[in-house]
Design goal:
single chain, alpha/beta, three-stranded mixed beta sheet, CBS-domain, about 45% helix
Length: about 150
């Protein structure tokens, strides 16, 4: 069964960290520079959340706030799920489905290791269908798909 570590190993290093005290306009420029949809937010040498395009749209634009005045710390997402590098891809998919998030922080014994996105998980599933899911689950899915369908 594939794990979070399998994704982290193949994921290129991303220099997408921003200080919580920066203005949103600086965060937007950083998003453009790294060509990603999120930045990891750091405050006092600790990862405290993520700032995403979604945060910008919902918490700045739709609320009529100014990107030149609002700080990242005021609009970032902090209630992100956290997993370990040893957790399964299946666990991560269930976690995202249950909490309605697109990003998961990866920490190993409290030490930040990276971010797993919904896109990372989907890419891993598409590339490694045979090894991502537990055999019992895969077997049930195959059984369901092999049942004859009724024609009316």
């Amino acid at each position: 069964m594939n794990t979070v570590n399998d994704i982290l190993i193949h994921k290129s290093f991303q220099n997408n960290i921003i200080d919580a005290g920066e203005k949103v306009i600086e965060a937007l420029a950083a998003l453009k520079a790294v060509n990603l949809s999120y930045l990891v937010v750091k405050e006092n040498d600790e990862i405290t959340g993520i700032f995403s395009e979604r945060d910008y749209a919902r918490k700045v634009v739709l609320e009529g706030r100014s990107s030149n005045e609002v700080k990242v710390v005021e609009v970032m997402s902090t209630d992100l799920p956290v997993v370990s590098p040893r957790d399964s891809i299946e666990h991560c998919m269930n976690l995202l489905a249950n909490v309605g998030r697109r990003y998961i922080l990866v920490k190993d014994n409290g030490v930040y290791r990276g971010v797993i996105t919904i896109h990372d998980l989907l890419r891993e599933i598409l590339q490694n269908r045979e090894t991502v899911f537990d055999d019992a689950i895969t077997g049930r899915l195959i059984d369901i798909n092999e049942r004859p369908t009724r024609v009316y």
